[in-house]
Amino acid sequence: MADQKMDKCSSEDDDPEKVQKEEKREDDVTADPEFVGCMLQPCPANSDPNYVGIRRLLLFRKAKSGLLHRKDWRCNGKGYVAYRNFINRRGNQMNLRVASYTSSPGTSGQWVPSPGLASLALEVDSWSVSKDTRASQTLSHTNSVGSNTSDTDRPRRKTEPAYSFVGMHCIFDQCRAMVSVIKFGHMSSDILAYGATDGTLTVCTVSEPPSILKQLSGHSKDVTDFDFTMNNQYIASSSLDKTVRVWDIPKGLCIRVIYGVAPQLCIRFHPVNNNFLSVGNGNREISVFNFSTGRLIDKTVVDSKVTAMDYDNTGRFIFCGDAQGCIYTITVNPHQGTLSRSHRASKHKSEVTTIQYRTFSLLTRGPVLLSFSRDGSLSFFSVSLELQGYLTLRCSLKLSPRLHSIRASFCPLLSLEKGEFIVAGSEDASVYFYDLTRPKHTCVNKLQGHGDPVIGVAWNHGENLLASSDYTGTVIVWKRAKTNVKK
């Protein structure tokens, strides 16, 4: 090593300052404890020790680099879950270093309401937006494409992956009554079920070839809501006939009936303990039943009939809406199933048709709650789980009033470079997409294909299919555009 240093110094072409820096770099490498530790670790027989040591060093530095990226993400106000979801999206793995700076929530350049405001209303006339959208789109009866021409600044991508569609995947039209509620199976991209006002519950598959699996009949009046168990083996349904029924899907049989004294309007399984079944009814009650025995565990009373509900992901809270537009937070004991009322948020004096919880949102940088009312009020709340599920209104959207109990839903696939998308049905037989981060031109796309008012909407777990149902019983499954679109 000393001879090599002398040879370098004696060379006429070598710069003394450059040689000094090179020597310092070599000394730093040999003195690096990580390098020495990786090289000195024992290696298997019949293997190159230099190769094994270098490989260990590279893996160590790769893990350290990932840790630094996660620290950068936390500095932007996000947790590890959001970071993991971000890097798992296709196309972000190879551009992680760039994305952590150019696509992070802190530098995305999105419009966000001021955190100092308790609420911010985005007043939009849905019919004028519809005219603008209709003038800028060419939509046929069988397909639809994303359009954004009404906005002042056009996006970089040709299509928006969160709300662009390439047509219909399949259609189910055997039902002759209004399909009031529609859902995909828990963590499923294939199983689809929908309930109708004739008391039937239909379970079908949307994989090739799409087909109906089971027709569940037993309710004598409208099916108001239903929910899958985590393994998608059972469905619990509520109805205006004052009963809750539990169905075995593979057998196509009703295995339990729970009788009540009032119409049963909404129902959910506990997300952690599926032995707890929560039901909201027309007698202002939220009840928890034992799924195995059908016995009542506990109940609490609110101010009006309970029309919509959802759990948070931990199962600690039930968020429910009533017929007077109030939204409640109910604390749940996940071990005993007991209930205690925590908070109430009064927003509108109209029936709440949709309550949906999500664990993360860029707009609030935390868990959020979506509510939709029959007067066309779409509200977006931030949820403080540390304060017993306290709700704070972050923004709202005023749409045209609905004559029917039309539902709305989060769009599950949300790029960090884009906005907060909500999909909802409409009286004009179209499915509309709204971006809550836009102060103007909030409607970004619509799907046309139904011939009657669209009542229910639902996304599959794979986020590539959207199902919608209408007043005459037609169910359309829409196929979303691929995400690998060239810029």
UniProtKB/TrEMBL annotation:
The protein's UniProt keywords, in alphabetical order, are: Repeat, WD repeat
Give Gene Ontology CC terms.
Answer: nucleus
Q: Gene3D superfamilies this protein is in?
A: YVTN repeat-like/Quinoprotein amine dehydrogenase
Q: Does the keyword Repeat apply?
A: yes
**SMART domains cross-referenced by the UniProt entry:** WD40 (SM00320)
Q: Show the segment(s) annotated as Disordered.
A: 1-30, 133-158
SUPFAM superfamilies given for it? WD40 repeat-like
Q: GO molecular-function annotation terms?
A: promoter-specific chromatin binding
Q: Where is the composition biased (Basic and acidic residues)?
A: 1-28
Against Pfam families, the record matches this protein to: WD40
Q: Where is the composition biased (Polar residues)?
A: 133-150
The ranges of the WD repeats are 216-257, 447-479
Q: Which PANTHER family match?
A: WD REPEAT PROTEIN 26-RELATED (PTHR22838), WD REPEAT-CONTAINING PROTEIN 13 (PTHR22838:SF4)
Q: What is the protein's name according to its record?
A: WD repeat-containing protein 13
